[in-house]
What we know:
Blueprint: H1 2-61, H2 68-75, E1 79-86, H3 90-104, H4 107-111, E2 116-123, H5 129-147, E3 168-170, E4 173-180, E5 195-200, H6 201-210, H7 213-228
Parallel strand pairs: 1-2
Antiparallel strand pairs: 2-5, 3-4, 4-5
Helix pairs in contact: 3-5
Amino acid sequence: MRMSIASHHAKRRPVLTVIGKTSVRWARQSRFLCAMSSTSHRAELSRADEEMKASFTAFVADPAFPCLGAKAALNSGSQILRVYRELGAKECATELARDLEAFIFSDVRRTNAFATFVAIFREPRALSEKQFEDLLWLALQQLHQIDVLRHAWNAKVSSDTANARFAFSFAHEPLYVVGLHGGSSRRSRRFGWPTLVFNPHEQFERLRHDGNWTKMQETIRRRDIALQASINPMLSDFGDQSEARQYSGRAVEADWSPPFKISGGAPPKSSGCPIAH
């Protein structure tokens, strides 16, 4: 009986070894397939992101597009494009904050008369003007919450969104924000993906100082009328009313105020700024 049992176990061991080797092979193949799937997914996202960037470039390059500053940044190679997953997502705000700060302190921004940072988001795409506006201000609030740990609000502009001298400040740099999305009522803001464009205020200050801003502003507004047969009702000169009303592109109500709050104590007083939008 002992010989029989020993013989029985001797026969089973090779079978168990084969099964073990097969399991290892299956595990290795599974990991390989998962890695291949992940690599393929990243490649698809990369291709899609490049298509989004190309679409934005074509959008700005269109002869009918009214903004001359954006065209100048594109033509000089100082239009920086980045793609993120979702507008309003916290992890995307962290990525955007890192990239936006890098842009602000970059040679591209310092050495070009026109430089702009463009943040394109893959999602969400089907947005009403109000929905996009809410997400835009959520994103700006998230950026501010990150920025306040490192930088003070620039004292050249007000941090009060109701103040006529308000401008968004990030990395101590005043920025004029332009929102675009597929549901915008303004054709110049109607782009297939939700997008935030950050323009340094100093560019407008330089134009104002050189006496070129008024002419450029009038040309842009004529081009906007040619595109849509009407001027954007939210446009105003800096100092007349808060530029916060212009960011989303929606025609906001007279008593409108955005859901945006300053952190870190009382906002600094504005020392004034000579630019106009």
